[in-house]
Structures are given as structure tokens and as C-alpha cells.
Amino acid sequence: MENQKVKTILKSVVIIALLFVFVFALRAQAADIGAVPNEIKANYMDADGLPYFSEMDSYFNLRMTQDYMDHGYFGDTLVNGSGWDMHSYYPSGRDVGSYQPMIAYVTSFLYGIVNMFQEMSIKEVAFWTGAFISSFAVIPVYIFTRRITNDYGAIAATLIVALGPNYITHTFAGFFDTDMFNVTLPLFFILFFVEAVKSDKLVHRIIFAILSVITIGIYSLSWTGYMFYPAVMIIVMIVFFILCFYLDIEVLEPFKNYSNKLSWLVNQKELFPVALIVVLGAIGLLFTVGIGGILDAISGLTGGFSLLSTSNDVWPNVFISVAEMQRPNLLAGGLPGAFLANTSGII
Question: Most buried residue among 10, 171, 249, 312 by CB atoms closer than 10 A?
């Protein structure tokens, strides 16, 4: 039995590694401009011989990363202790003290690792970072799906998610933006959250709860919309407890079986991990984004309801006037849109 378990784990590791290589290789194809005629190939490369990044945000993120590596803060100078970018809103510049730093942290870390073995510029490392980080999405998808199906179902689900059109078109080589985190980190968070609730051993529930908090803490430094995922999972658990109550499904033990409330809480398999994640998550977010960041994230969850009003003061609302920013319709893509539910292929 033990040997069979080891073989299953090793097989899963090999499959995940192959899936990682496969989805990364597809993203890497964006760097191949071999099909471009030689007489115009120079138009597709910068002065360093590297293909151009695919959009302007990538260059902004690259510049912030270079600033961080050069002098330890984002922007060209400090104004009242906050980073100030003199290349934006020229000539006045703008405050970049609230810039989400994780993309720079990850890229500078990878830069240090890569240059232990091969000399590469920070621009070259940044060019490949999005494709590399986004490929890690195969890990939580495979593990999560493998638990409820089999190897074939897990492989299919992994490819659907990792190669979802909306995801791969924002994470190929040369696309250096925070999109690389926007599927990988939420999936890890959901995996750890579910494992914390499902685990039978108390120590495992605590470990997975801590991993959930660490993941959402990292995500809070990566993208401003991080609060959406903890909110969804907490709402799911609230609905779960309400349904269990109305359906007479006993998931919470009586208080009388325990000497005190703390002892009772610790022994509630479904409730304790959720409470622990909420408490530790609040403490962790105080360190990563501060109380102001937490309040802004919470208000952002409800702020979206006002986005579709036809006007905002005297200015037109771009969420109405710009087609690409309007609320997506499930059937907008025709039958494929209805079948896939969204362009990411996750739902």
C-alpha cells in the first residue's frame, strides 16, 4: 500500500512537470520571430536584439523593477518618503508609492537565480517571467482535479485552465504584467483553503490555513483585486453552514461536549480553519497592505455596483461608453461562450 502511494505521488509529479514544460513551451513561442522576413526582422526587435514587449504596461513594470534593483525603491526619486516616477505625467511626474511590488520582487529574485548560472539582463529575465510564473497554475489545478477525478480528468482540466485564451494571451513571453499572478495565486489559495477544511488532522488544518494566508498575503502585494477570492470562499462557507442548518446536517458539535468555547472551536473541522484563516489573514494583511489597504479592498468589493451608472459627475463613464469595458454577456461569444462560461476556461 505504501509503495503504491509513493508510485502515485511520483507519477503525479512527473505529469505535473511535463504539463509545466508543455504550457511554458507554448507561451515561449511568442519569442520566436523566425518566420518574419529578414529584411524587416529588425523592426520587431529592440536595441538589445530582444523582441519587443507586447504592450506598454510591460515597459512600465520593467522600469519599476529596474528602479527597485538600482536604488531599492520604485520611481526615480523620493517625495515626502514616497516613490515618485518622473517618467509618467511628464514633467510633474506621479506618486508610485502604492505600486504593487510583487512583480518586481519575483523578477529580481529570478534575476539573481538565473545569473548564478548564465548572465542575463533584467530585461531578458522580465521577458520570460510572465510565461514562467503563469505556468505554475498547472500545480493546483492538477492536484485539485486529481482528487475528484483521475489522471486523465486532471490533465484535461489543467490544460483547459493553463491554456485558457484569456490567460495565455496575457502571460506569454514578452507580456510582463500582473496577469501572471491572477490565476496561479488564487488557485493555490483555493486549494489550500479546501484542504484546510477537508483535513482530518488538526495539525494539517493549521498548516493549510497558514498556507492560505501566506498565499493571499503574497497576492495582496501582486494585484489590488485580491480581496475578491477570500470573500467568495467565506461566502461559500457561510452558505454551506446555512444549508447544513436547514437540511439538518450536523457539522457543528454541541457546546456541552467541551469544557470551554476555545476547545469546542478547535475541534470543529469545518469552522476552525475558516476562523483561523480570517484571523491570521487580517493580521497578515495589516503587515502587507495596512488597515487602509484592507478597507480599500473591502470597499472595492461593493464599489463595482456603481460602475454601470451612465455618468459619474460631469464625466462620461468609460465602463458604459467603451465596449471592451462593459459587463460581459455570457452569450456574447455565441455557443462557445455559453459552453466555456468564460474565456479563461476555468468555470
Answer: 171
Angle between helices 271-288 and 290-303 (to 10 degrees): 120
Q: Measured between alpha carbons, how far is 27 from 180 in angstroms, rounded to an integer?
A: 12
Q: Please give the helix or strand (H or E) that residue 126 lies within, else none.
A: helix 122-134
Question: Quick one: pLDDT at residue 332?
Answer: 47
C-alpha span between 147 and 318 (Å, rounded): 43
Domain span at 48: 2-162
What nine digits make up the cell of 276? 483561523
Give yes or no for residue 142 having a pLDDT over 50.
Answer: yes
Give the burial string for 29-60 (b: 16+ CB within 10 Å, else e): ebeeeeeeeeeeeeeeeeeeeebebbeeebeb
Rounded to whole angstroms, how far apart are CA atoms 68 and 304?
32
Indicate whether 94 and 23 sit together in one domain.
yes
**Which stretch of DSSP H or E encloses residue 315?**
strand 315-316
Name the packing angle between helices 151-162 and 138-148 (round to 10°): 150
Query: What is the tens place of the pLDDT at every residue in 61-88?
Result: 999 999 999 999 999 999 988 999 998 8
For residues 197 and 10, what is the distance between their CA atoms, to the nearest angstrom? 25
Co-location of 158 and 301 in the same domain:
no
Tens digits of per-residue pLDDT, 7-28? Answer: 888 999 999 999 999 999 999 9
Q: Predicted confidence band at 48 (pLDDT cuts at 50, 70, 90)?
A: confident
When the pLDDT of each residue in the chain is averaged and rounded to a whole number, the result is 85
Confirm whether 106 is domain-assigned: yes
Residue 167 domain-assigned?
no
Is 32 a member of any domain? yes
Q: Is residue 26 part of a domain?
A: yes
List beta partners, residue 312: 315
Q: Are 23 and 158 within one domain?
A: yes
